[in-house]
Amino acid sequence: MPAPARPYLRLMRLDRPIGIWLRLFPAWWAILLANQGRPHLGLLALFLAEAILTRSLGCIINDILDRHIDAQVERTRMRPLASNQLTVRQAIAFLALLAVLEFLVLSSLGPLLLSMLTATLVLAALYPLMKRLTWWPQAFLGVVYNSGALMGWVALSGKFDLAPLLLYAGCVLWTLGYDTIYAHQDKRDDARIGVKSTAVYLGRSSRGWVSAFYALALLFWGAALASQLSPSATLAALLAVTLHFVWQLRSWNPESPADCLAKFKSNQSVGWLLLAGLALVGGGFR
């Protein structure tokens, strides 16, 4: 990309697309679950755009509020705002441009979905403050980041149901697990400068806690799938995800920032495995 555009694209984290995938998969899961395992290509494409734009808006808000903290953390000190490659005024103008673009792109989804999107963005703006207020900002992130599980279902069916609520609860717990792993990269810097996280709070007991979060995520996902699938199809859809979680937890080294990042990124595989499971067992829907 042209040099002047690069700081803006890095502000959107387009060089780190894992966050887009983790935002996107809950919506795609919900769409397939609501559509008998069949992909709805129009909605899948629309929610891909939503994931890119919503994640970008959240990152920009985060970087504006955390620019002074980011400058003190080794992993984040070269972010565009922390390193003064962009000014706050430039970031706010770009934020407004993306917000207008997102609402134009998603205007076809109707007022209910736009209201849900607005609530998501408002809560996303509060997320950076949670690092200062609670040891559990990862839980707040889970609540905000997985609204696609509800939005995807409503976009297809036009109403709420028990299945998307159970799917959403599982996704919140999934995020609580994988973002705790992610936070272990920065736990020493966070402890030094007073930033709160589950990694700092849970410390050496993190593996047991993340195991519990993943187990509960599987339980809620299983309940969501069982409300739409036969029991055998539910088990088949979740088997590969379960095995991946076991591998992830057994091989995770919380003291290695590189391994924490690798294990965090491996959750993209969780997204694809469950998506493939839903598509393959579509014939088992009740």
Structure in words:
The chain is mainly α. Helices cover 74% and strands 0% of the residues. It has 15 helices and no strands. The protein has helices at 6-11, 18-34, 41-65, 67-70, 88-105, 111-133, 137-145, 148-157, 162-183, 187-193, 198-202, 206-226, 231-251, 257-265, 267-280. Helix 2 runs parallel beside helix 8 (148-157) and helix 7 crosses helix 9. The longest helix is centred in the N-terminal third of the chain and has 25 residues, at 41-65. The protein starts with 5 loop residues before the first helix and ends in a 6-residue tail after the last helix.
Q: Main sheet?
A: none
| Rg (CA only) | 19 Å
- Strand tally: 0
Summarize the helix and strand pattern as letters.
HHHHHHHHHHHHHHH
Q: How many H/I helical runs?
A: 15
* Secondary structure: helix percent: over 70%
Describe the global form: globular
- Roughly what is the average pLDDT, rounded to an integer? 91
Q: Would you tell me the structural class of the helices and strands?
A: mainly alpha
Roughly what fraction of the amino acids lie in strands? Answer: under 5%
Gap from first CA to last CA: 49 Å
Low-pLDDT residue spans:
none
